[in-house]
Amino acid sequence: MDELLQGLRAAAEPTRLRVLALCAHAELTVSELVRILGQSQPRVSRHLKLMVEAGLLERFQEGNWARYRLAGIGTPTLSDKNADRHAAVARFAEAVIDLLPADDRTLGRDLDRLQKIKAERDRAAQDYFARNAKRWDRIRALHVDEKEVNQALVRVFGADRGARSLGRFLDVGTGTGRILELLAPRAEAAVGVDSSSAMLSIARAAIDRAHLNHCQVRQGDMYQLPFADGAFDSVSVHMVLHYADEPARVLEEAARVLAPGGRLVVIDFEAHNLAELRAEHQHRWAGFEQEDVREWMRDVGFQVHPVETLEGGPLTVCLWVGERPAEANENALAAG
């Protein structure tokens, strides 16, 4: 009862209702909300503080910026503590949004201003692509067409079974968000994690453009993912391991956040001798031997599938697939 009353008090103010409506459509910084609302930064910050404390909004840090999002939208379990309370308040926040009048002029003007901010994000993303296109194209020319890789990724995840077939999905090292765009439509909720604020801006623009409201991106370390044990049903590590100093630790952390019965898919290059990728593109590893990755996956408890290879140039792309045993099997293994 106390949580409900706190939520009601926090929502019962015109500006805070506007903030709720905006944060249901996008993750926004304080400065972006100030631009849209036409109010001072201290006033907007006070509203946000109350709404976060009431559980109506989620606040997360990304570099020097704090971003805000409507609670519960596309958010897998970040912590087991107070999970039921958070879920109830999130449902209340969504109910409030549903009650807002669609023809309200102020809300309509706010959403028009939000679209301008999204357009600015998209232009910044396109500028970044233009600056880096030649460098990326040189690497793409060395391996099989990305369409084939994407088709294989959808198939090995079982994502061709349709909507929500991936459950709660995590993309580690999400970069530009391309894998989120591909797989999030088949997920119940989806999160992309990357250490780079610049890349997260690109990914955020991509998911905004694709209207993937159940999808979000977060700044995080692939060795210490900011999620609870078993928070996800599906995890991808796409073209990330060759940048990792300790790739086995990345797979160990992926295993931790996967629920029993969950699936991990690793996509990376087979071992090669193209030294320029290490010298010019900061690759830590010149690809991987197939059995090395399989062994790392087995060491952290995965049941490992046969490796799938996609040949088409000097570089061979491999897909390593592992399953977390279902709980009954895990218990049997522990007992044995």
Descriptive report:
With 336 residues, this protein is an alpha/beta fold. Helix 1 (2-11) packs parallel to helix 5 (83-99), helix 3 (30-37) crosses helix 4 and helix 6 packs across helix 9 (197-209). It has helices at residues 2-11, 14-23, 30-37, 41-53, 83-99, 105-140, 146-157, 178-183, 197-209, 247-257, 276-281, 290-299, 327-335, and strands spanning 28-29, 57-62, 65-70, 168-172, 189-194, 215-219, 232-238, 258-269, 303-304, 308-310, 317-323. The strands form two sheets. Strands 4, 5, 6, 7, 8, 9, 10 and 11 form an eight-stranded mixed beta sheet that branches. Helix content is 48%, strand content 18%. The protein has two domains: 2-113, Winged helix-like DNA-binding domain superfamily/Winged helix DNA-binding domain (Arc Repressor Mutant, subunit A, Orthogonal Bundle); 142-335, Vaccinia Virus protein VP39 (Rossmann fold, 3-Layer(aba) Sandwich), CATH 3.40.50. Helix 10 links the parallel strand 7 and strand 8 (258-269). It is built from 13 helices and eleven strands. One of its GO terms (molecular function) is S-adenosylmethionine-dependent methyltransferase activity. This is Metalloregulator ArsR/SmtB family transcription factor.
